[in-house]
Amino acid sequence: MGTDMNRYRMHINGESVEARRGAWFPVYDPSTEEIIAEAPDADENDVNRAVQAARAAFDSGAWPQTTAQERGRILLRLAERIRKESAMLAELESRNSGKPIVEAEYDMADVATCFEYYGGLATKVAGYVNPVPDNALSLSLKEPVGVAGQIIPWNYPLLMAAWKLAPALAAGCTCVLKPAEQAPLTVLEMARWFADVGLPPGVVNIVTGFGETAGAPLARHPEVNKIAFTGSAAVGKLILKSAVDTIKRVTLELGGKSPNIFFADADFEAAIDGALFGVFINQGEVCSAGSRILVERSIYSRFVEGMAEKAKRIKLGAPLVRETKMGPLVSKEQYERVRAFQELGKREAKLAAGGGRPAGMGKGYYVEPTIFCNVDNSARIAREEIFGPVATVIPFNDEAEAVRIANDTPYGLAAAVWSRDIFKAFRVVKALRAGIVWVNHMQPTYVEAPWGGYKQSGFGRELGPWGIEEYLETKQVHINLNEQPIGWY
Ligand code: NDP
């Protein structure tokens, strides 16, 4: 640690920079608990510098007045570069976040696809002719919102950056993005290519640092027009409050406690697989994790046994080993949080699998895939977002009860329902208060389809055409076609 070799710099106004006050924070490999790099510990001064750069790039027209074709081409070039470097990026992502390398490789493909999608969409933003009843041409024009502040979490570090940057840039916005302090490395790698692919200075600024010292000043900055945030509900609420004074546009993606509902007529093997995949993928560090598994009572015991049996065989291990299906949690803090929930669960429900730290792992923030059964939906383990591999399995008697329990949560990000009866499945889909609902699957996510929550899972939608809309304002333009005076006075 401390050599210039593993010091990453931030990206402000096209330059690779340190924090003004010269402070750094350590970045860890959660599988070894060792420091692998350092990143600038930015404060309000650095945030101001970044916002000024983004503001200037916007107000000068350097970005918003670039043609949509050119903006699109730049995003496509960035996507191409990401594909070219995807092995390096995947390895770095895996080391820094603890996610299995195979999952990191999928993430990098999705990152490139996201930039490609919005590279293509940049030229599809169109206005509208309003059918007004006068001799006038009334237009609705779409214009970029301005400077976007973007604050992202550590569970899909580069992918979350892509979900935020790609639509904003396609829309013509300029950006200041703050990655999570736990996992800032891949986005800093990507920033090295911005100039090469043709992004003018100041269009994308990456500021690294902590939530309170770098995130909060960005969220309240008067020159930031919009904040896009993904993370905890607690911080989401702070962001919303700090946006009030300057009436910023805000979009929030705040995770959840998503129900994964299994009826007795579902394909049993596929169901067990789907229950495990829904909650344990990416170590359970997924905002849409199916962490409440609702199972019809007639198959409940067999289901819990089937899940527990398979969960015990999940291959935990070093993230860079290709056979690994579950790596360590991202940080010591997250490890301690999840361990506390494991212990709480033992008091609130019955342990069916896991429940602790796996034996023989030595160092690293590993926890066992854990399943609790006979869980009451009012238990804290069924209500609070754990963000780790901890499943709660809850029995239900009939369709109405399944829907009632599923909706009995302050959150509403995602849900899934498993049944061979398409009529029943679709009745449940319609009754669920969630922004994303899967049938006979859980977690597939596509850049073409909207992503976002109901209730306290936030508001606004990312991805697809919905994603770019969140970075656009609508301007009404009225062109009078009468040559006579108004004639009122
Ligand atoms: P946070 O919500 O704290 O972090 C998300 C992002 O917000 C990070 O970049 C963080 O910075 C930043 N941030 C933190 N505080 C502020 C603030 N006051 N103003 C502006 N930005 C801020 O999540 P944690 O990492 O602390 O994780 C805690 C829990 O949050 C998890 O256990 C999980 O339940 C939930 N979570 C949900 C996610 C989701 O996708 N919905 C993602 C991550 C976590 P910093 O880098 O300093 O933390």
Kindly describe this structure.
Helices cover 38% and strands 20% of the residues. The chain is α/β, with parallel strands linked by helices. A 7-stranded mixed β-sheet has the order 14-15-16-13-12-17-18, with helices on both faces. The chain has a 6-stranded mixed β-sheet with strand order 9-8-7-10-11-19, sandwiched between helices. Strand 7, helix 5 (157-171) and strand 8 (174-178) form a beta-alpha-beta unit. Helix 1 runs parallel beside helix 8 (211-220) and helix 2 packs antiparallel against helix 5. The longest helix has 21 residues, at 101-121. The protein is globular. The mean pLDDT is 97. NADPH dihydro-nicotinamide-adenine-dinucleotide phosphate binds next to helix 8, helix 9 and helix 12.
Topology:
Elements: E1 10-12, E2 15-17, E3 24-29, E4 34-40, H1 44-59, H2 68-84, H3 86-97, H4 101-121, E5 128-130, E6 136-144, E7 147-151, H5 157-171, E8 174-178, H6 185-191, H7 194-197, E9 204-206, H8 211-220, E10 226-230, H9 233-243, E11 249-253, E12 259-262, H10 268-280, E13 292-296, H11 300-311, H12 332-348, E14 350-353, E15 370-373, H13 380-383, E16 390-396, H14 399-407, E17 414-418, H15 422-431, E18 436-439, E19 458-459, H16 464-469, E20 472-480
Parallel strand pairs: 7-8, 7-10, 8-9, 10-11, 12-13, 12-17, 13-16, 15-16, 17-18
Antiparallel strand pairs: 1-2, 3-4, 5-6, 6-20, 11-19, 14-15
Helix pairs in contact: 1-8, 2-4, 2-5, 3-4, 4-5, 10-11
